[in-house]
Amino acid sequence: MSDLLERLRGRGWRMTSQRRVVAEVLDGDHVHLTADEVHARAVRLLPEISRATVYNALGELVALGEVVEVSTDGRAKRYDPNAHHPHEHLVCSGCGLIRDVHPTGDPLERLPAQERFGFTVSDARVTYRGLCPACAQTTPGPGRRA
Predict the structure, then answer these.
(1) What is the Cα–Cα distance from 14 to 95, expressed in whole angstroms?
(2) How many CB atoms lie within 10 A of CB 92?
(3) Lowest mean pLDDT among 17-21, 63-67, 82-86, 132-136
(4) DSSP string, 69-101
(5) Centroid of chain to Cα 116
(6) Which of 78, 81, 104, 119 would bridge with 32, disulfide CB 3.0–4.6 Å?
(7) What is the dihedral of CA 135, 125, 30, 81, to 10 degrees?
(8) pLDDT (tens digit per residue) in 73-115
(9) Is the C-alpha dihedral spanning 74, 8, 46, 49 positive or negative?
C-alpha cells in the first residue's frame, strides 16, 4: 500500500473506488501531475471516473493537507503527494518537469536580518529553475545551434 493510501486510511478518509484510484495515481516519489493528467491515468484504471470526481478528490486531498498544490510560472497547478516530507522543487523552464530535491542547510539562515524588514519569518519556499537534460539538448545555448 502506498504512503498516501496509508495516511488517508489512518485519517479515516472514506475510501471509495474513485478516491482510491486518485490516490493510487498520485503514488510515487516525484509525482507532480496536473488534474488532467491525474484524470487521464485514473480513467485507465477506472474508465467511468469523471473529471469532476477527480477535481473534487484532489480538492479534498489538498484541504486535508495530504497533497500539496504546486504552481509554477503560470502553468497548470500540479499535485504533490509528498506533503509530509520537507523538500523543495527543481523545475524545468522548458517542459515544466518538476522534481523533488532535498538541499542541505536552512534557507531561513541565508536571509540576513536586515533583509527581513521586521518580519518574523517562519517558512521559506525555494524553487530551483533550469533545463532538464532533454530540454538542454534541444534548446540552443551560447555556441550551440538548434
Answers:
(1) 36
(2) 18
(3) 82-86
(4) EE--TTPPPEEES-TTS--EEEEETTT--EEEE
(5) 28
(6) 78
(7) -140
(8) 777 899 998 887 788 888 888 888 888 888 887 777 788 888 8
(9) negative
